[in-house]
Predict the 3D structure of the following.
Amino acid sequence: MEHKTVLWDQIGERPVRQRLHSGLEVVVLPKPGFKKTYATYATHYGSIDSHFRPPGALEPVHVPDGIAHFLEHKMYEKPEGRDVFERFAELGAYTNAYTEYTTTTFLFSATSAVDECLETLLTLVEEPYFTEENVEKEKGIIEQEIRMYWDMPGDRLRSNLMHALYHENPVRLDIAGTVDSIRTITPEDLYICYQTFYHPSNMVIFVAGDVEPDRIIDRIDQWEARRGLAPKAAIERLFPAEPPTVAQKRVEQVMPVAAPLWLMGFKDTDTGLTGDALLRRELVMSLFWQLVLGPSSPLFNDLYSQGLINERFYSHYASATTYGVSMLGGETPDPLRLEEVITSRLATEPLRDRDLERLKQKELGEFVGLFENLEDLAYAFNAYYFRGIDLASVPDLLEAITVEDLEAARQQHCQEPQRAVSIIRPAHAAPAGEGWAR
Amino acid sequence: MTWSKAPEHFVGEWRDGLGWYIYPTSRFKTVTMYAAWIRPLSTYDRAYGAVLPQVLKRGTEKWPTRRMMETRLEELYGASFRADVGKLGDKQLMTFHLNVVNGQFLPKKPDTVTAALDFLTEVLDHPHLVDGLFAQDVVEQEKAQVKRQIAALINDKGQYALARLIELVADGAPFGLRKWGTAEEVDAVDQASLTRFRDTVRHEAPFLFLVVGDVDVDRMAPLLQDRFGGSRGTFATVEPYRGQHHGKTVVEEENVSQGKLAFAYRTGLTAKDADYPALMMYSGILGGFSHSKLFLNVREKASLAYYAYSRLDPAVALMIVGAGIEFSHYEAARQIIEEQVEAMRRGQFSDEELAFTLKGYVNDILSEEDSPGQLIARQVERQLVGGGLSGQELIEALSRVRREDIIRVAQAVHLDTAYFLTNKGEPGHGT
């Protein structure tokens, strides 16, 4: 079968895409000469989708927090008593999976037996097997994973900030849930989520490697035809109304860190964008932060030479249809002074054409560079796909952005009522070993 | 200007203290350059080695401020540049890493490769000096940054536990020294001594330069020789650890939510030894993959940990076992780990475990060739260890490893030091 080839001559890439009868989208990017094939099978379902109406049901259901991540773990278990890790190991392939606010992604990376790996990936995602016993067993493992995050200061810093920014939107909660919430998860809960969100209409497969796209797509098509599934109507996802203000202006926590960590966040009030409008918003915000606080900005360099930040200080914007957040911060010896300088200069830092043109050049270079790292590429593709964005739109949309767009974004986004600050303060105790005065 | 094709492996040599190795390939859309000054790690001058890369990032003759350097990198289509201090065994490395998009994929096809090489040359050979010295304010600012870096190790508990473990194993030997030095050592650095240090390093320290990307060896090699040739010293390969502790256990307390367990085993083998592929198979079966004994027994069967692994240090002849566990599970986890090590010693592993491990390594080794960063890391390691196999040769050597080879190397693997980072006030553990 001939499938639709998209030509990106400028960067020398020719992805092929096809929507199957079941509603599943398959995209294959040939990478001649690459040793490995990297494939993802992703669903538009993440930690924030905890309130929804299952197809055909009258009443909406509320499932425990952290269930999308729990479900991701449990997909690896199969009735033969031989989990999917073992099957991939037998094929000499690497497999993993990750859950985010709005997506869950399963993947493999292989240098041989690509057909078998692909079948295993399809089996992994398409054959759920949850029992009382295997669900109970997973709780101990996930509890340890949650505790591991508790010891990661950067993770706490962000988690606390999201909690402060949002009153109601479930992005305020940790993706893995809490030790208490995951204890209440049952096999029935998992099946409800699986049947609702792991339907082909809600999913996409992305494959990149030294492969023949038509052959890969035909194989998946044959496999999927046997399942006999038809496209389904869109899922009704329910989100609480979110007030425009933040839940908490400041949140602080004490941890065993060497120096304070400071993070400021702004939440978007007008959400609901998809497609090019959402991509444009992301590009505008990304360029805005690079211009005002990126490594080549006067503000960054003033803060650096005053010793208020280190070179890992960052500022970025992340969004989906239901939320949008800017975060800026890092390690600092003096959180209050840092906050004072940034707050006073944010509204007035000049936005210059010349700098914008240079930063567009940088964005374009990074866009091209994306195509040599299959992991990053698949990640970007999936993230964009579920937001209705075509990756190929990036260069043209980028080109059209002006400093006026950035100025408008600043006026609308960097407002006091939408701002919160998260701080991790050190507990004073000198750890053992050399490097500390004892 | 175009840069052409391609043998798909590193070619190069050491001459007069300059080692250049180039990996031409048309698979990548970027060109990656890596430069390193190599020095013995010592308490005498490691702090200088930590501060120097930081200061070199702050300005060159052509781009005298940090901001101008960053602006230049953005003009180079968002080239990424890092200057860091690194460590491999008993060596300290001052590293400079630059990755730039190949101009052939950009509008107007600019020669980004030459521009990137010019940038690195500026950083290495033409730093911004004031009256012949590094600027005082810059040196002081970077000293403060390095001191914060030293203190920040505690922020990552897993890394902290590993650093403490290696320190306890080495017990003063160079391979246990931290790469940044101590706050006191950093305090002793000043603009004059740092400038002298830089002159010495530049003229005397062995200098390694690696390039991965769509470049022509016949054109690139003379360019490197021309820009960086000289007469520098040589270096001794990394000294392996022979073992001295015989299972000592150290428990330390911090305010943590999860216990971090880190064990060091001496192996007697480094990457250049003929038996090293057998040791790789050993560690792979024990804890290198998600099908390995440690993952299956500590995580899957006992639900004691989120992660549990073993990995080899190819330079100092150590194997590290690590896991993140509930505090009260220390004894249980330790027992399972010791049982699995014992099982390896007795040859209790299946043909399936052997086959899966070999396939896992083949996948890793081939995949490495799709990543410029991994190709470079492996090449640096080979240079400093003084040998070792890679690519197809390593795959073949691993395929030849027999069950009895693994059992033989297993007899020489012994627990040297056990470290456990637990919570303050948790009941006592260990011995």
In short: The longest strand of chain A covers residues 323-331. The two ends of chain A are 72 Å apart (CA to CA). Residues 250-426 of chain A form a domain with the Cytochrome Bc1 Complex; Chain A, domain 1 fold (CATH 3.30.830.10). Chain A touches chain B through 77 residues (CB under 8 Å).
